[in-house]
Design brief:
Blueprint (H helix, E strand, L loop, with lengths): L3 H22 L6 H4 L15 E6 L4 E6 L4 E7 L5 E6 L5 E6 L2 E7 L8 E8 L5 E6 L11 E5 L4 E7 L2 E9 L5 E8 L2 E6 L4 E6 L10 E7 L5 E6 L5 E6 L4 E7 L2 E6 L7 E4 L1
Antiparallel strand pairs: 1-2, 1-20, 2-3, 4-5, 5-6, 6-7, 8-9, 9-10, 10-11, 12-13, 13-14, 14-15, 16-17, 17-18, 18-19
Length: about 270
């Protein structure tokens, strides 16, 4: 005869097994997280927060939060006149800035109306050759967002977060001299506009410590000569652009191409997107 206490232990044991099995089906939560008595950190599946950064000609930094059918602008602060590149990285509001030969790591509070800006204390030198950067989500599977860089030598380089700094992740590809703009669109994925007006879609290789990184991709569509700036949107398989006619456009992946949603004009003062 089974006692009430024995039945209770058996039910609790079965419950734990069921919870472990369900968690094993969820991305980024290993089954042994329950056995270890703690929740695992979820993978960074978003490229960055739902929106993008803009640096204007007057040196002001803005964050544009994506809504259902538009974007809401939040003015963050001034003094960004000498910034040459920015890229949002994580849903915590972290982003990187290249100014002169230095890379800096920042965080903007996206939870309230104040949008407080915090410098996270990381300054890395030697970035005078950086030409383009873009967030690519958690490309290295460590729970922290990463980014890619195109340098003046035509190399595509992966950088992974290491504390409040970044560690060199290796060269992902060569021959990127013709890249004019890049923007992250999903984890390990980004788009490139070439100097000839072609749009290419790229995916980073699955990282193997014994092998080099590499990017695979291909031509998507032509006719992008009228795009002046390219930036992320925060949603998977979408990005934004500012055209030379000052119009903001959101592009969404559809059947191996990208379809536009047109927003307002008046973006002539936008100097950087990221």
């Amino acid at each position: 005869m089974t006692s009430g206490k024995g039945r209770r232990h058996r039910i609790l044991g079965l419950t734990a097994l069921l919870v472990s099995a369900l968690l094993a089906l969820l991305p980024g939560v290993p089954a042994n997280a329950v056995a270890a008595g703690r929740a695992a950190s979820p993978r960074v599946t978003a490229v960055q927060p739902p929106g993008f950064l803009e640096v204007r000609d007057d040196g002001w930094l803005w964050y544009y939060e994506r809504t259902d059918r538009s974007f809401t602008g939040h003015r963050i602060g001034g003094g960004w006149d000498r910034t040459s590149l920015v890229a949002l990285l994580g849903t915590d509001g972290s982003f990187v800035e290249v100014k002169g030969d230095a890379l800096r790591l920042w965080q903007v509070d996206l939870t309230g109306g104040a949008n407080t800006l915090t410098f996270l204390g990381s300054v890395m030198g030697g970035w005078q050759n950086a030409r383009l950067i873009a967030g690519v989500g958690d490309a290295t599977y460590d729970g922290i967002p990463d980014f890619v860089e195109v340098d003046n030598r035509g190399n595509l380089v992966v950088w992974r977060r290491d504390g409040n700094g970044f560690a060199y992740g290796g060269i992902e590809g060569y021959g990127w001299q013709n890249a004019r703009q890049i923007a992250g669109v999903a984890v390990k994925q980004f788009v490139e506009i070439k100097t000839n007006g072609e749009l290419w879609s790229w995916r980073l290789s699955d990282h193997n410590p014994t092998e080099p990184w590499w990017a695979t991709g291909g031509f998507t569509m032509g006719g992008w000569n009228n795009v002046r700036l390219l930036g992320p949107d925060g949603l998977t398989d979408s990005f934004v652009s500012v055209r030379f006619d000052t119009q903001l456009v959101r592009w969404t992946s559809s059947a191996n191409t990208f379809r536009p949603s047109y927003f307002d004009r008046g973006w002539q003062n936008a100097r950087l997107l990221g």
